[in-house]
Amino acid sequence: MELKVVELVRKHIDPKVFWRVLDVREQKLVLQELFRDICQLYGVEGVELVIELDPLKYRLTGGGCYVPLKRRIYLHKISLMTFLHEVAHMLLGPSERKARLWSHKVFYLAFPKLYMKNAQEGKFFHSFPIEEIVQFSEGII
Q: Which domain of life is it from (predicted)?
């Protein structure tokens, strides 16, 4: 399965279209389709992606959260990094470090130029040296 999730991200997300052309409704549909395909890739069943754009919840959660007992991922903003981070929790468990590294690595491998631009502009809540991201491996990317 190595790199399959990166292929799925590239299949569903065209950065020039996703952020510049699609409206919020269309972005939600894209993320739902990507989520469905990721769950199918990893054999995850019964987890729901709930996208509720809410500035107050966004401030409380940092953009989203995975609630294992409810088997739900909540997104409170349209953000590929937040989406990947919460998917990482679903796949890897509660470790913040692993979820952060996994989401950064998937984003980096899918869109290296965009990732580096966003990192240099300080657009990510959490940052790691690029060497640490590249070396990270949980065997499920």
A: Bacteria
Q: Are 32 and 73 in contact (CB under 8 A)?
A: no
Q: Tokens at residue 136, please?
A: 């990270």
CATH number at residue 94: 3.30.2010
Summarize pLDDT for 44-86 with one digit per residue, the tens.
999 999 999 977 666 666 789 999 999 999 999 999 999 999 9
**Does 141 map to a domain?**
no
- What is the domain extent for residue 99? 1-135
Domain count, the chain: 1
Q: Which helix (H) or strand (E) holds 65?
A: strand 64-67
Take residue 56 and report the two structure tokens written for it. 């107050």
pLDDT tens-digit map of 5-21: 999 999 999 999 999 99
